[in-house]
Amino acid sequence: MADVFSKKAHRQHTAAGLATFCGLMVLLIAALVALGVWQVERLSWKEGLIARVDQRVHAEPVQAPAHAAWGQVSRAKDEYRHVRAEGVLQNDKETLIYASTTLGPGYWVITPLYLADGTSILINRGFVPADKRDPSTRSEGEKPTPVKITGLLRITEPKGTMIKSNDPASDRWYSRDVAAIAEHRHVADVAPYFIDADATPNPGGLPVGGLTQIVFPNNHLVYALTWFVLAIMAAGLLAFVARSELRARRA
Description:
Elements: H1 2-58, E1 62-63, H2 75-78, E2 82-89, E3 95-101, E4 104-114, E5 120-129, E6 147-155, H3 178-184, E7 190-197, H4 220-250
Helix pairs in contact: 1-4
Subcellular location: Cell membrane; Membrane
Transmembrane segments: 15-38, 221-242
GO cellular component, one term: plasma membrane
């Protein structure tokens, strides 16, 4: 009799363990499928973003947002928009931002553009190598007369990069932080964005514009397939265990 009760308890324990295992596997499969679906949705969003940015970049340039529209400028709606602006470059207030480009290491030259309405826009005029960081070595490119700038609207990059933080006190910059640069250079009424100048040559060849890198990593399809494959593997394991248990019971 004791042996019968022992076998019965063992079967009940085994059934409970199997039920727990199956329940956890079902939850795991559901989670994996949900992650796969989420990545498919992200893929659709990323492809839409790339298409919108591509359209903005290749559109005809429009006037850069004026002071009255600054509050409506956003990354989602305006970044990489093809814009133009006219004014006078304040070369005595330029800032050098450390940069690593296809031309090698050096600096972005950030110069305030003073507009007719009394406001300013920071212009990333382009790249100069380290041996040309001193403005006196590229005086031909320091335009003192009114200029027309065409380029891509970019959103401010506050504080620095993931690796290095800006150090305004030492005048060391690693990102194009509009507010901090404007404060450090005493530029009033500055737009909350900056403009990456296009490849229009500057006198003397420096700075070199048109080096904006527009890269959006798009690995969402790979991630989606990974999650779905894992879900299939988990479902296969669940089916194998369930089939083995049924065979054992029949035996």
